[in-house]
Amino acid sequence: MGLLDQVKKSWNAFRSNDQSYSKDLYEQGPPSYGTAPPQNQRLRYFNERSIITSIYTRIAIDVADILIRHAKVDEDGNFLDNLTSEFNTCLTLQPNLDQAPRAFRQDIVMTLFDEGIATIVPVDTISDPQFNAQFDILSMRVGKITQWYPKHVRVSVYNEAKGVREEITLEKQMVAIVENPFYAVMNEPNSTLQRLTRKLQLLDTVDEASSSGKLDLIIQLPYVIKSEARQKQAEQRREQIEFQLKGSQYGIAYTDGTEKITQLNRPAENNLLKQIEYLTNKLYGELGITEEVMNGTANEAAMLLYYNRTIEPILDAIVEAMQRAFLGLIGTKKKQKVLYFREPFKFVPLGQLADIVDTMSRNEILSPNEIRSAMGYRPSKDPKSDELINSNMPPPAPPPQVPPNPQGESENQVETATNDELEAIK
Asked: N or C: which end of the chain has fewer CB within 10 A?
């Protein structure tokens, strides 16, 4: 392409942003102002202000790190291949106009933890889900249920056409309803997490009261305050001390030698902090996480326990809800399944990776190109790299060739003659 053609076909975002285009944008819907996208789920007020948010975010990031696919399986449910469906495109490329697959998975988990139940709503489909048992999904959103009916649910979901959240009524069979497997620990009114939230609210109240700037002084005057005149005199004395403290650069006031001042803003001793530490450790144990998992210093055994006890139950709940609602009995009979895949070599140290690769290759479990792909290398062009062979063993010897029979005798005759010769030798 020449220089003149490049200039003609070039496009600049600022030069091409004319007023008519901006006018069309306002006709599509009202703009949303703020730093957060309007489609994001906002956490509850007290969850957002406490350490609960860090627990939610840590688990949600780890769940979103695992890929979810629409796959083809065999008779035993083993993975065969990825399906080229629009539903798989939503899971791997673009669930909707605003979110990438990782952000979509994290949105599911954050809504699941905050509400206890999350819904995955198929917004755009190829066929009508109300009349077709199997339908392909073009886009989907995460919503939260506001009302329950016998066969329907009222869902609050973001409408990208209008730019606002709306409530719509949908059938339960066409919506993936994901229930939190840790509902009894996180969302019940008297669960460990809710008790911890209330204790943190009390701690915030105590901190705000202690840091409000009040001195909480009691002034003991050298006379009895019973009459109205003495009360007015005491009130005047209090105002004088307030004026001295407020007008002084360093907050210093003077009193008479007969007056006595007692300060009351000493922190009251309580076991609130110990209760918070106890509930935090109990919550970590019930969720299957540790302090090392939260700060990123956990060893391999702790991470394995964390993934088995915490991450996999959440992923199972998500994929089972998708399997029930989006594939149904027809898709299951066609050997279609929603699967999640965890990177096997992600947390393996480099010193152990060589031994694992050698074991996998020697036992003919993975081919060299499959191992190279998992490690991030390009596949090799050698035909042997796609074969399940043990490179440490010599190739098998070719089968022995039977020499041709020059006399044209049959095999039975040759075999009989050979046997006669052996009998003669004996």
From this structure: C
**Residue 110 burial (10 A CB sphere; 0-12, 13-18, 19+):** buried
Using DSSP, state whether 301 is helix, strand or coil: helix
CA distance 328 to 334: 10
Question: Which of 342, 365, 381 marks a domain boundary?
Answer: 342
Cβ atoms of 332 and 338 closer than 8 Å? no
Contacts (Cβ under 8 Å, ≥6 apart) of 228? none
- CB of 143 within 8 A of CB of 130? no
Q: Hey, what are 141's tokens? A: 């959103």
Contacts of 263 (CB under 8 A, 6+ apart): 215, 216, 217, 218
Cβ atoms 85, 136 nearer than 8 A: yes
- The whole domain housing 268 covers 201-275
Indicate whether 426 pLDDT > 80. no
Cα angle 35-37-38, degrees, rounded to a multiple of 5 = 115
183: which 2 tokens? 């509902």
- How big, in percent rounded to 5, are the helix, strand and coil portions of the chain? 45, 15, 40
Q: 369-410 pLDDT, tens per residue? A: 887 776 667 778 888 788 887 777 776 667 776 666 555 555
Look-up: residue for tokens 């407020």?
246
Q: SS3 sequence, 31-64?
A: CCCCCCCCCCCCCCHHHHCCCHHHHHHHHHHHHH
The answer to whether residue 407 sits within a structural domain is: no
- Considering only residues 249 and 52, tell me which one the structure prediction assigns the higher pLDDT: 52
Cβ proximity of 215 and 222 under 8 Å: no
Between CA 307 and CA 104 the distance in angstroms is 20
Q: Which of 424, 360, 353, 351 is nearest to 390 (CA)?
A: 360
Residue 196: which of 113, 279, 270 has the closest Cα?
A: 279
